[in-house]
TrEMBL record:
InterPro entries registered for this protein in UniProt: CBM6 (IPR005084), Galactose-bd-like_sf (IPR008979), PbH1 (IPR006626), Pectin_lyas_fold (IPR012334), Pectin_lyase_fold/virulence (IPR011050)
Nucleus in keyword set: no
PROSITE patterns per UniProt: CBM6
Name recorded for this polypeptide: CBM6 domain-containing protein
Claim: tRNA-binding is one of the keywords in the record: no
Pfam families for the chain: CBM_35 (PF16990)
CDD domains attached to this UniProt entry: CBM35_galactosidase-like
Cleaved signal peptide residues: 1-19
SMART domains: PbH1
Organism for this UniProt entry: Yeosuana aromativorans
Domain CBM6: 538-664
Keywords: Signal
Single GO MF descriptor: carbohydrate binding
């Protein structure tokens, strides 16, 4: 009997130890004396902070509600049973904010505070923290959404990984916005740390930040400031931030891919720091940044599309698109080793409002030191007219111990200049070979560094297009098959861990074409066989469209001397009968003359409205402004389409097809039902969509996208194993399209959500 009782007690304790609870919170209908169930939810953050949580517990916040107060994470999950913070219900994401306004009550430094805890996940939440009132012991010039730190000190070895690290942090489908300190006006730029997600002395390993949206933040979106390893940051959007989208410092092994960064270094709010590259690395080892887009980085400091600060090793930037950054392209500072820039595209980088160094490598470091083994090869660089209709006139500043500049295309419009406004060349061991340097006025000394250069038109597909697809090569390009074959630098961790899909030697170009630099290849970022046709562009004048609430205005420099003013809410301009031959993705070029940064609303075929920030042009119509254009990717149907615009001074629109509107391979093989299938095609909202792989493909990565039947994207997620599943509750009801890109295979099917 004693043995039986002991056994029963053991089983009871074992079950109790692994019991998983779900706690529901609603600020609108909850009460802290409730049971915490969905039917009887808790109400406040104070109640949450009082709960004793266990591994596997879930905290769910009701959508549409706002929760005020600082969440102090006091408990860890365990391996396989993380503690999860998520949302429930329908409607807008629940808002979590530490600040309760300017009312004299303390506003905490962060909305979520994590100190020395692990196995934590945060999904489907909106996080804000606009501080007005001081918190005792906290600096007034800082504010954070999520703040992660530890109680550890750096080991004597100086290697943070010699300490025992905290593991497993997941952040997905989070919105970070409206994060500001009380006042940082008297604080030096480098001492302002306000961020959406901030790791400081964190000592953490295994971090994934994906599908998140960052906007309206004093400085940074994501900052791995100290001591993070094995981090993946992917599929995030960083729009209109005072500083950088992401900063990676004092960290190891980070994969940064498929992120969109626009208007970093913004000054749209006077509290913003107004300086910042889209992304940069400092004092870090083994970082890969690939398939990212950075546009309109601003500020008088670095403010490049992406850059490599000082004290790094083994940094690989490949397949990225950089446009209209104030700093320039390929910014690499001092005391670095093995820095690789390959198969990237740069369009109109560098302008006089910033550093304006189109080509930029320096020795800047705490103790100035030239970098070794800097490789810049097979990139395509275009310089023409920027968004303010100013022709490019950028500097060249190159200072390194060893610099390799091979197989690049530099294309200047006839009146553009490079290396005339400023020129510095201080390289101990230069290696320049087989570059195309064409057009404009290029500094003669720089030209002469490459005795094998080609000063011929590379015949780009659509030079000046503000999208990477314009920089393919046309048939009969002198860049086709004429690149230098050479031994590429080594990225030591290629194929290992989070870099499983990364190769040390390049195997494809930015468009997905195969590459082998040991054989005959193309100069520049495109290794295709050449595009035979010129792009087809259809143009539609604003004054010929349907105007509601707006007015036709005289605009001397506009097409036809006219534009349409629909600035302000409720004023619309609709282009009916926009005809295209085939269904697919198109570039919509909106020509406008807005005097300030503004938000344009775009609705295609009566679907969901997309909000797009437009950089200001060089003036409004009555200020003799010259309309500029901004490209947006849209989906059109074969035949007639309607495009409605709201809030802008519109000259015209142009519509042109893009063969490959996403940075991915274009040689996909369709999988049939014998190769792969969905476990179920009729699902309920509380079920999980599962894709079963029958075919034994050489599986590395998969990207699964769920679309409305209209073509609108609902959700997109990456997988790096064969366990491909997605919760259905965010899909909405009705017919949905499932598209899975599995390496070079493509799977498409329909589902019905009830």
């Amino acid at each position: 009997m004693i043995k039986k009782i002991t056994c029963m007690l053991f089983v009871f304790c074992l079950v109790h130890a692994y019991a998983q609870n779900t706690y529901y919170f609603s600020s609108s209908s909850g009460n802290d004396s409730n049971a915490g169930s969905q039917a009887s939810p808790f109400q406040t953050i104070s109640k949450l902070n009082s709960l004793v949580l266990s591994a596997g517990d879930k905290i769910l916040f009701k959508r549409g509600d706002t929760f005020t107060g600082q969440i102090v994470v006091s408990y860890s999950g365990s391996n396989g049973s993380p503690i999860i913070y998520d949302s429930y219900g329908t409607g807008n994401l629940p808002i979590l904010t530490a600040s309760d306004g300017n009312n004299g009550l303390t506003d905490p430094l962060s909305t979520i505070k994590i100190t020395g805890k692990e196995y934590l996940e945060f999904h489907n939440l909106q996080i804000e923290n606009e501080r007005f009132d001081s918190e005792a012991g906290s600096p007034d010039d800082q504010a954070y959404g999520i703040f992660i730190q530890s109680f550890k000190s750096l080991p004597g070895s100086g290697n943070f990984e010699d300490a025992v690290l905290f593991n497993h942090f997941r952040f997905s489908n989070l919105v970070f916005q409206n994060i500001y300190s009380l006042d940082s006006s008297g604080t030096a730029f480098n001492n302002i740390y306000s961020s959406g997600i901030y790791f400081f002395n964190a000592f953490v390993n295994d971090v994934i930040i994906e599908d998140c949206y960052f906007t309206n933040i004093e400085r940074c979106g994501v900052w791995l400031r100290k001591y993070v390893s094995d981090a993946i940051i992917r599929n995030n959007t960083f729009i209109d931030l005072g500083g950088s989208g992401t900063i990676i410092s004092n960290s190891k092994r980070v994969l940064y891919e498929k992120n969109l960064m626009r208007f970093t270094g913004s000054s749209s709010d006077p509290r913003m720091t107004a300086r910042g590259s889209g992304m940069w690395v400092f004092g870090s080892d083994d970082v890969v940044a690939q398939y990212n887009t950075s546009q309109h980085a601003r500020g008088g400091g670095d403010s490049s599309g992406m850059h490599v600060d000082y004290g790094n090793s083994n940094i690989l930037y490949q397949y990225n698109y950089s446009e209209d950054s104030a700093g320039g392209f390929c910014e690499t500072l001092g005391a670095n080793d093995n820095i690789i820039w390959r198969y990237n595209i740069s369009v109109n980088d560098g302008n006089p409002a910033g550093q304006n160094k189109l080509l930029w490598v320096s020795d800047y470091a705490y103790n100035p030191q030239k970098s070794t083994n800097v490789y810049i090869y097979n990139n395509s660089i275009y310089q023409g007219t920027d968004y303010k209709n100013v022709i490019g006139d950028s500097e060249i500043s190159l200072k390194a111990a060893s610099l390799n500049f091979i197989n690049n295309i530099i294309y200047l419009e006839p009146s553009a200049k490079l290396g005339q406004a400023g020129y510095l060349f201080d390289v101990d061991t230069p290696n320049f070979a087989k570059n195309v340097m064409y057009g404009g006025t290029i500094n003669t000394n720089f030209l002469n560094k490459d005795a094998t250069r080609k000063e011929l038109d590379p015949r780009l597909f659509d030079p000046g297009r503000r999208h990477f697809s314009g920089y393919k090569l046309k048939t009969f390009s002198p860049a086709l098959g004429t690149a230098l074959s050479f031994t590429e630098p080594n990225f030591p961790l290629a194929g290992v861990g989070i870099f499983q899909g990364v190769t040390s030697k390049v195997t494809q170009d930015i468009f997905g074409n195969p590459v082998d630099l040991s054989t005959a290849t193309n100069i520049g970022a495109d290794n295709g066989t050449g595009e035979p046709n010129v792009p087809t562009v259809n143009s539609y004048e604003a004054e010929s469209a349907t105007i509601v609430g707006g007015s036709e205005i005289t605009c001397v420099n506009a097409s036809g001397g006219k534009a349409v003013n629909i600035l302000g809410a409720g004023k619309t301009l609709t282009f009916n009968n926009v005809n295209v031959a085939t269904s697919g993705l198109y570039l919509l070029n909106v020509f406008y003359a807005n005097p300030t940064l503004s938000s344009l609303q775009i609705t295609v075929n009566g679907g969901a409205t997309e909000s797009v920030l437009l950089p200001f042009s060089d003036g409004y119509c009555y200020q003799s402004g010259n309309p500029t254009f901004f490209p947006v990717i849209i989906s059109l149907n074969a035949g007639s389409n309607s495009i409605m615009l709201e809030n802008g001074a519109i000259d015209k629109i142009e519509v042109e097809s893009v063969n490959d509107a996403a940075l991915s391979t274009n040689s996909e093989v369709f999988l049939n039902s014998s190769d792969a299938h969905l476990e179920k095609t009729i699902l309920y909202s509380d079920e999980t969509l599962k894709l079963i792989m029958n075919k034994e493909t050489q599986f590395k990565t998969a990207q699964v996208s769920i679309y409305e039947i209209t073509g609108a994207l609902i959700v997109r997620k990456d997988f790096n194993d064969r366990n491909i599943n997605l919760p259905v509750y965010d899909f909405g009801s009705g017919i949905k399209i499932v598209v899975a890109k599995i390496d070079n295979h493509l799977f498409v099917d329909k589902i019905i959500v009830r």
